[in-house]
Amino acid sequence: MRIAFLINNVYGIGGTNRTVINLAQGLSARHRVEIVSVFRRQETTRFEIPPGVALTPLVDLRPGGSGADRGHPLLAEPTEEVPPQEEFHAQYSKLSDQRIRAYLEGTDADVVVGTRSSLNLFVARHGREDCVRVAQEHMTHLDIPAEVRAEMARAYPRLDLVTTVTEADARTFRDTTPVPGVPVLCVPNSVPEPPVRPADPAARLVVGAGRLDPVKRYDLLVLAFDRLREEFPDWQLRIYGQGTERAALRALISDLRATERILLMGSAAPLDSEWAKGSIAAVTSERESFGMTVVEAMRCGLPVVATDCPVGPREIVRDGEDGLLVPTGDVDGIAAGLRALMADPARRARMATAALANSRRYDPGRIAERYADLFRDAAGRRGLHPADDTGTGTAPAAPADHQLARGTVRAMGWARRFWTPGTVGKGGLALVSVAAGAAVRITAATAHLDLTDPDPLLAVDLPADQADGLTLLLREVGDLRSERLLVLPAAPVADPPPGKARLAVRLGPQLREALYEGRWTVVLETASGVRSRVTAGVRETRRLIADRDRLLAEPAAPPGVDWLTPYVTKEGHLALRSWRRARHAECTAVRVADDGQLAVEGAVVGAVRLAERPRLQLRRRGATGTVLEYTGRATGRRFRFELSAEELALARLNRWEDWDAWLLPGPAGPGGGRSAADAARTLDVDTGLRAGLDNQTAPVDLEAEAAEAAGAAAADGTAAAPAAEDPTAPLRIARILDDFADPKPILEYPAALLTDGGAPGYALVLPAARIDVRPYCTGKGELSFQVVERD
To answer: Which residue ranges does the record assign to the Glycosyltransferase subfamily 4-like N-terminal domain (predicted)?
Structure first.
C-alpha cells in the first residue's frame, strides 16, 4: 500500500512526532510510506526520518532566506478550515489551507492518515473518495474543545476509520461523539526496542521526563522525593524536559535546598540512554492521553511509579507487576510508591524484568501490522483495491546491530587545510590547523559515543553511498580563525545498520593522550577537503556515574583526572568535553542554610598533599582583587569549609561582584586564615566608591574579562602558573566529574538573602535593600560566588 501521514510539524520534538515516525518505519518494511509535514520551521528533523520513508513539507517557514513561504501574502490571512478553538488554530492560514487541500486532492496514496483533530477535519472534507481516510487521535478526547468535537461529529462520517491510543478514549469517543458507520478503535502508540543495554536495578536514581507543563505535576514529584531524603540520602531524582514550569520547579528545588539531589536536566534526545541510568521511572501527571514516557521507560527496563490518572497509565502499567499505580495529586501516595521500590532492590529487579517483557507489546512491528490489517479491512468495506505491498524501507534492526540516530551532518564554513609547525599531537597523532573557507553541502549522518568500556567507542552512521573517502576528525573548539583537528583512525564496520555505513574508532590510551583538555566537535572530511559537523545520536554515559563515586570514594588518590563527557551543541551536533589534569579539587556539595551560612565540600584527586587544616580562598574578580581566606578541615582526601554569606556581602566593593573559590591544600602560614569579617574591617570607607556606580544596573561579563586578563598576564610572564609537581599549589575548585558536561544550568544553587545592617566601608556609604549571595558553577564548572545588590 501507499500510506501517507499528515502531521502538523514533524521537524520539532513531541510525542506525536515520535510515534508517527516509529509507525512509519514499521510500515515501510512492506509498504510505501510518506510523512507530510504541514510546516517546516527548521533545516532538519529532531528525530531521524528512517531510510525509505519520504518526507514532504507543505509550508516552508525556515528562518532566514531559506524559508520560501515566509513572505507569502496568504500567510497573514486566517484559516477558513481550522476551528478557532483548536489548540494550534493560530498556526494555520489560508496558505496552509490551500497547500493541504492541494496535497489531499493530488496525492496517489491508498491510505491518508491525519494525526490531530485539525488535520483529520481536512482529511474528512478533502480526502479523495478512492483512498482510505483515517483519523488518528492522540489527544484525550474530552480535552478537545466542545466546539471542535461538534465539528468532528459533522465531518467524520466521511472517514473510514478513527483510532485512539487507549481503550478508555475509544469508549469516550463513541459515547460522546458518535460517528455512525465509522469504526472507532484503539491502537496504542508504538515504541521501538532501545539501542542501549537495560537499566541496572541497583542504580539509585529516579528518572522523570516530559514537558515541564502544569498538567505533568512535577511539583508533586519533587515534593514526594524530597520527603524521602532522610531515608534515602544517596538517591537522586532527575527530570528531563523543557517548559513553562521550569522556573517554578527551580524555585521549589531551591527552597527545599535540594539542588544536588533533584536535577532539572533540560532536554535530551534520544532519551533512551538517560532512562537507562535510572532504576525507577516516575510519572505524576493529572492526565495522560497515552503515556509514551511510561512505555519508553519500561522498554529500557525501569518499573514505573505512575499516578492512576486518566487515561493512559492504567492501561500500560500492570499494578504490582511491572510498576505501581498511585493516587493522582497525592504527594503522600507518590512518596509511598517511590519508597516501596527504593527500599526493595529485589522487588525493583523483578519489576524491571517484567517491564521489559510486558512492554514488547508496543513494538513498532506489531503495531504496524495491526494498522495494516485495519487499512485493508477499511479498503475492503469500500471496495477499494490498494496497490500490492512494495516496501521502500526496512524494519527496525535489532539494537545489537545499530544505534538509534537522528538528524543530519551540517557543513562547517571551512574548505582548506594547511599544516603549520608544531601541530603534531602527543603519541604522534596529527593535529591540523584549518583556515576559514566556504560553506558546503548538507548530508545525513549521526554520531554515537559509547562509554561502556574503558576505551570509548565513537561511531558515525551515514548513508552507504556517501561513505567512501571520508575521514573522521575531532575539531578543537577555539579561535575560529585557526582550528586544530585530531585525525582519528576510524574504519568501516562489517555489520552496519541496514542501508547505512558505519565508521567506528576506539578512543584508546594513545588517542586519549592526544585529546588534551578542552572541547572537541565530531567532524567528517571528504576526500576533497570538505568538512562537516555531525549530529548527535546516542550518548551512553551511565558508567560515568559509577566512575565518579569510585574516584571520590577510594582512600588513595587516583593518579589524576582523565574524564571525557559527550554533549550536544545548540545546533544539535555531537561534541566532547575532555578533562586531563594531574591535580584536581572536585566540589561534591555546596550548602546554603536559611541563616546565610555556607559550606563547601569536596575531594582532591591526583598529586595533591592535603593538610589537616587546608584553606579556602575567595578571590574577587577584577582590578580590586581582594582575597578572603578561610581555614577548613580535611579527612583523608576530603575537605570542608564553612563561611558566611554576610561576610561576603560586607566585603563587596561593587553592586555586582563575582568571587572565585580556590583550594590551598597546604596549612596556613603565620597570619593566614583570616575570616571575611576580619578582612571586611580593614576596607577603607572610600575604596568602593567610583563614578557612575549608581548607574550600574546590569553585570558586565566579568568572567570573560578575568579570563582575558589572565591570558595576557600569562603571556607576559607576570602570572606564571604554579608548577604542576607542587602538591600544595592552589587549585580552582570545580565540578567536572559528572555524566553531563555543563553543570551551570543544572546545579542552580539557592541564594542567601541578606540586608545591610549598618556595615562598615562601602556598605555603610551605599547600603542596599537586599543583597543576594549565590554560589554557582561557571561555564567551565568552576565554583564561584555572586554578590548582587537588589533594589
So the answer is: 13-191
Question: In sequence order, what are the residues at sequence separation of 6 or more whose Cβ sits closer than 8 angstroms to the Cβ of residue 230?
Answer: none
Find residue 502's DSSP bridge partners.
461
Nearest to 515 by CA among 540, 485, 544, 545: 485
Buried-state track 545-574, b at ≥16 Cβ within 10 A, e below 16 = bebbeebbeeeebeebbebbbbbbeeebbb
Number of C-beta neighbours around residue 329 at 10 A: 14
Tell me what percent of the residues of the chain surpass a pLDDT of 70: 83
Q: How far is C-alpha 52 from the chain's CA centre? A: 28
If you average pLDDT over residues 149-159, what whole number do you get? 97
In 419-560 the beta strands, taken as DSSP E runs, fall at: 431-435, 446-450, 457-463, 471-476, 483-488, 491-492, 500-506, 518-525, 531-540
- The DSSP line for 101-119 is HHHHHH---SEEEE-SHHH
| Cα angle value 106/108/111 (rounded, 5°) | 110
Q: Is 347 left (phi over 0), alpha (psi -120 to 50) or beta?
A: alpha
Give the full edge-to-edge strand order of the sheet including 323-326: 262-266, 236-240, 205-209, 280-283, 304-307, 323-326
For domain 2-191+365-382, give its CATH number from 3.40.1190.20, 2.40.10.120, 3.40.50.11540, 3.40.50.2000.
3.40.50.2000
The predicted model gives 594-611 an average pLDDT of 93
CA angle 14, 17, 21 (to 5 degrees): 145
State phi, psi for 369 to the nearest 5 degrees.
-65, -35
**Alpha-carbon radius of gyration of the chain:** 29
Rounded to whole angstroms, how far apart are CA atoms 221 and 293?
A: 15
Are 396 and 192 spatial neighbours (Cβ–Cβ below 8 Å)? yes
Q: Span 260-280, mean pLDDT?
A: 96
What does the pLDDT read at residue 660?
97
Cell numbers found for residue 201? 536495578
Domain ranges of the chain: 2-191+365-382, 205-360, 400-581, 583-709+724-790
Report the interhelical angle of 94-106 vs 117-126 (nearest 10°).
Answer: 50
Cα–Cα distances (Å) from 676 to 457, 593, 647, 679, 683, in that order, read 49, 18, 5, 5, 11
**In terms of Cα–Cα distance, which of 158, 186, 159, 161 is closest to 172?**
186
510 grid coordinates = 594513545
Bridging pattern class, strands 184-186 and 161-164: parallel
Q: Which three cell numbers stand for residue 198?
A: 537495560
| DSSP annotation of 329 | T
User: Given a cut of 90, is residue 391 above it in pLDDT?
Assistant: no
Which three cell numbers mark 399? 539494537
For residues 138 and 125, what is the distance between their CA atoms, to the nearest angstrom?
Answer: 20
Angle, to 10 degrees, between the axis of helix 117-126 and the axis of helix 146-155?
20
Residue with cell 502531521: 7
Using pLDDT thresholds of 50, 70 and 90, give the confidence band for residue 584. very high
Beta carbons of 290 and 312 less than 8 angstroms apart = yes
Start-to-end CA distance of the chain, whole Å, equals 67
* Residue 361 in this model has a pLDDT that exceeds 80: yes
Mode of pairing for the β-strands spanning 752-754 and 583-592 = unpaired
User: Domain 205-360, what architecture?
Assistant: 3-Layer(aba) Sandwich (3.40)
How far is it, in rounded angstroms, from Cα 177 to Cα 180? 10
pTM of the model: 0.85
pLDDT at 393: 66
Residue 163 has pLDDT above 90, yes or no: yes
User: Which residue from 240, 292, 300, 236 is spatially nearest to 268, judged by alpha carbons?
Assistant: 240
